[in-house]
């Protein structure tokens, strides 16, 4: 600490207003207005794709823009022209990459990623789910946003490069694993008490064995179909 510690004083004016005179607030206001409208103009030029679904590449652009724009708005030692050059360069690079990825499928997969199949015919593809670092509850939440009650409604579901889950529904619904939060039940699709789903992958079995033939887990729950019902239902015997 030494002399620095002895020179320190608790100064509210310095903490709130900084060491600049109060008139510097007007300069900050001017900087914000100029940088804002310059960035807005370039975003408009860069096209609607920039404002669409966010990919990894777009996320990197947001971070770069945040630093360039934020510093120029607040710090008096950051010339506005430097910020303008950075913003123009970043959005220009985004425009160039958009044109290149449009023409080159391999580059598009490298830059933006690819869609990953995570549900097929009502069965969760656990390896792909793990690859995407997605939990069951996160997956179920995304499915509920798509109006899905249970996995039997899903023919195919993909994790898209944007991070969203897209769903292709079955033309004919069939029994499946409920995706509703715990405590909310669905109407059973069959009067048979032994129609069940693997709690881990959603595989449907009329007479569940001790171990799921798809994922090897041992937990089974009653198969359900669309339609909410809070009445307790019989669950399949657990082996």
Description:
- Strands 2-1-3-4 form a four-stranded antiparallel sheet. A three-stranded antiparallel sheet has the order 6-5-7, with no helix packed on it.
- The protein is built from eight helices and seven strands; from the N terminus they run ααααααββααβββββ.
- The longest helix has 24 residues, at 80-103.
- 21% of the residues are buried.
- With 239 residues, it is of the alpha+beta class.
- Mean pLDDT is 77; it is low at 187-192 and 228-239.
- β1 and β2 form a beta hairpin.
Topology (elements, then pairings):
Layout: H1 2-7, H2 12-17, H3 24-46, H4 56-74, H5 80-103, H6 105-112, E1 116-120, E2 123-124, H7 126-131, H8 136-145, E3 154-159, E4 165-169, E5 196-198, E6 204-205, E7 220-222
Antiparallel strand pairs: 1-2, 1-3, 3-4, 5-6, 5-7
Helix pairs in contact: 3-4, 3-5, 4-5, 5-6
Estimate the helix proportion, in percent.
40-55%
The low-pLDDT segments are 187-192, 228-239
Terminal CA distance reads 68 Å
Helix count equals 8
Task: Give the overall shape.
Answer: elongated
Category by helix and strand content = alpha+beta
Mean of all residue-level pLDDT scores: 77
If you compute it from the alpha carbons, what radius of gyration comes out, rounded to the nearest whole angstrom?
27 Å
Order of helical and strand elements: HHHHHHEEHHEEEEE
Strand order of the largest sheet: 2-1-3-4
Strand content of the residues, in percent? 5-15%
């Amino acid at each position: 600490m030494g002399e620095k510690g002895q020179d320190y004083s608790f100064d509210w004016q310095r903490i709130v207003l900084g060491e600049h005179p109060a008139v510097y607030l007007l300069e900050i206001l001017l900087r914000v207005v100029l940088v804002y409208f310059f960035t807005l103009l370039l975003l408009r030029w860069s096209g609607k794709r920039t404002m669409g679904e966010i990919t990894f590449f777009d996320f990197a652009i947001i971070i770069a823009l945040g630093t360039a724009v934020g510093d120029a708005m607040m710090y008096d030692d950051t010339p506005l022209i430097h910020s303008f050059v950075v913003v123009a360069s970043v959005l220009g690079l985004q425009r160039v990459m958009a044109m290149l990825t449009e023409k080159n499928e391999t580059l598009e997969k490298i830059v933006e990623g690819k869609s990953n199949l995570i549900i097929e015919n009502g069965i969760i593809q656990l390896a792909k789910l793990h690859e995407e670092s997605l939990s069951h509850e996160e997956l179920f939440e995304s499915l509920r946003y798509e109006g899905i009650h249970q996995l039997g409604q899903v023919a195919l579901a993909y994790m898209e490069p944007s991070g969203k889950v897209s769903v292709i529904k079955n033309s004919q619904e069939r029994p499946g694993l409920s995706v509703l939060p715990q405590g909310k039940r669905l109407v059973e699709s069959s009067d048979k008490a032994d129609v069940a789903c693997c709690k881990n992958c959603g595989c449907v079995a009329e007479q569940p064995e001790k171990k799921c033939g798809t994922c090897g887990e041992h937990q089974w729950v009653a198969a359900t179909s669309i339609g909410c019902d809070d009445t307790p239902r019989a669950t399949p015997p657990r082996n």
